[in-house]
Design brief:
elongated; 3-stranded mixed sheet; 25% helix; 7 helices; alpha+beta; 304 residues
């Protein structure tokens, strides 16, 4: 156990922490825990790690994040490095499995580096989500203005709950992928190709329909519609075709939407009623929606 702490605690027993820690882990021996249960939240050396549930805390170097719960260092690192389980970016993996608080463990350099990287992604998405919430008109949702609702005045939390973001395979930046729906619930349980997740900026290099570049904002905020319905696309497959999450799920299940004749695809009800809030070619054609920032500005001008 090269990563194990080699120090002896004041009680005379070995530390179960990791090598190089600034402050040793509290003693996990049952007798010491009985004397000061608050130090380990009653966790003992023979208790299972709350992440792997395969071996005791005393069987491998462990760490105590700021929330006070204890787990194996390597289990925590593995959890953080694997990140979200499905195509949509989520952050439950950053939470302590025991209390659901965001993990903070500055005493371990490896863990701190991973958390810093994840926090940067979260902050990027948080800023984008709040702006997108206003663009989608969700800032007017009654839940945000009802004092009895859990989302009352919690615009950031509501934005992160309602909006989906994905990581672009090419540029490694998060991009907006539409509103979350019940059809997203099981997305982590099916297989997917990371290479199919491409943002509008990267996809615009190969697609000619619509506005593929913005004179003011460049390609960073370019979005595409799903080729088969009136939704924002999250998936870019075969280097040619954009899918929204529901249409992509159907495609993966063998309900090949790309084989449906164009005249049989859903018909757009026009820019006033279309979820995309714009005019576009009939479904069945690749089309860039253009710059999301400029579309947002245009929509806000119309609203006044």
């Amino acid at each position: 156990m090269k990563k194990a702490c080699d120090k002896i605690l004041p009680c005379g027993r070995p530390c179960y922490g990791f090598r190089g820690e600034r402050k040793c882990l509290p003693c996990l021996n049952e007798d010491c825990v009985k004397k000061n249960p608050e130090l380990t939240l009653e966790a003992k050396d023979d208790d299972y790690c709350p992440i792997c549930y395969t071996s005791g805390l005393g069987d491998a170097p462990s760490i105590q994040p700021e929330c006070g719960h204890i787990c194996h260092v390597d289990c925590l690192l593995s959890r953080l490095r694997k990140r979200w389980p499905g195509p949509r970016i989520t952050f439950a993996f950053c939470e302590c499995p025991a209390c659901r608080k965001w993990v903070a463990a500055p005493q371990n350099p490896e863990v701190a580096v991973e958390l810093a990287s994840i926090s940067a992604i979260f902050e990027d998405i948080r800023k984008k989500a709040v702006d997108r919430l206003k663009y989608e008109g969700l800032d007017k949702d009654k839940r945000l203005h009802d004092p009895n609702d859990r989302f009352y005045n919690k615009f950031e939390e509501y934005a992160l709950t309602r909006l989906s973001y994905y990581m672009c395979f090419k540029c490694k930046k998060p991009y907006f992928g539409g509103l979350k729906s019940c059809e997203n619930v099981n997305e982590g349980q099916r297989e997917y190709k990371e290479s199919d997740l491409v943002c509008g900026a990267c996809a615009s290099d190969n697609i000619k329909g619509g506005i593929s570049n913005c004179p003011q904002h460049g390609k960073d905020f370019i979005e595409f519609k799903c080729q088969f319905c009136c939704s924002v696309a999250q998936w870019f497959c075969w280097g040619t075709t954009h899918f929204c999450e529901p249409c992509h799920a159907k495609q993966c299940k063998g309900e090949y939407v790309n084989k449906i004749p164009k005249d049989k695809l859903p018909k757009c009800s026009g820019p006033d009623k279309c979820p995309l809030k714009t005019s576009h070619p009939p479904n069945g054609n690749e089309y860039s929606l253009g710059c999301s920032i400029c579309r947002n500005l245009k929509a806000n001008v119309k609203a006044f």
